Amino acid sequence: MSFGQGGPQWGPGGTGGPGSGPAPDWAALAEAAEARTRRRKWLMIGGGALATVGIAAAVAITVVSANSDETSASNKPASELPTAADIPGASKDPEPSFEATTPPPPPDPKDFISSAKKDKAPLTPEGLFPGKSLRAGESVYKKGPTDSTTQCTSVTQPALGSVLAKHDCTRMIRASYIRDGIAVTVGVAVFDTASDAAKVKDQVKKGLVNSLSGKGVPSFCRTGVCRGTYNAYGRYAYFTTTGYTSGKNVITSDRKAYGVGDDLARFAFHRINQRGEAQASAAANAPQ
């Protein structure tokens, strides 16, 4: 057999050739492949649509959850909406509770000056009657001498001294002031308790604290008539003795002398109260 232009040929639709069988139907294969390609495209498009629907549903749930208090958040009836316990993040545990705390009231200044057990601040004439003068309204009083003694009866008239001794006076602190020929001695008697000081105030009927002269304050109230006052605050009883340095008597209608005595009595009360306020403030600011 010779091979030339007229010899056997191998190609599409041909027959023959070593090991050859029936030739494949290439057209049918091409159509089948095209059909499979079209099905894969539809599946991909369909899958994408389903994914899109899933995202839309997730967004819708998020919006409804975030705006669940608005009536337009969902068209579903209330019976079909999730309960609070079904919402992610909802807790069945009770809300934490905190006990209400009330700060303690500030200390009462009077508590500190009502008992020797709490009244621990230093007690001196200069601490109780500071400075060289005092002003009461438009009046200025020059301070004279001061003193302090544990022998309370030694600086008072007997009628007052006996009452002080009966209720265990532990100290008497005095200071004198002068203005326009009128002098005043202020005496502050100290007791262990407020009860003792109150009893002294209630039982004093007469008797004065002895006047204290010196340092610009002439002798006064050694003779003649002088005016006395007495009161108590906390564990302190305080007294004033007011008179003219000229020896003139003080009469009940003498508003000038009475006014001077009242100014100094108020000053004594003010200083005792300040003592309590200072200790109360220190206690309130002390570290706990």
Short description:
This protein is 34% helix and 17% strand. It has six helices and six strands.
Can you offer a commentary on this structure?
- This protein is α+β, with helices and mostly antiparallel strands.
- Helices cover about 35% and strands about 15% of the residues.
- Strands 1-2-3-4-6-5 form a six-stranded antiparallel beta sheet, sandwiched between helices.
- The longest helix has about 40 residues.
- The protein starts with about 25 loop residues before the first helix and ends with a helix.
- The relative contact order is 0.11.
- The N terminus is likely disordered.
Distance between the termini: 124 Å
The best one-word shape is: elongated
Poorly predicted regions: 1-21, 42-74
Helicity, in percent? 25-40%
* Radius of gyration over C-alpha positions, nearest whole angstrom: 54 Å
Give me the number of helical elements: 6
Beta-strand fraction estimate = 15-25%
Order of helices and strands: HHHEEHEEHEEH
Structural class: alpha+beta
Walk across the major sheet and give the strand order. Answer: 1-2-3-4-6-5
Average pLDDT across residues? Answer: 79
Largest beta-sheet details? 6 strands, antiparallel
List how many beta strands DSSP finds. 6
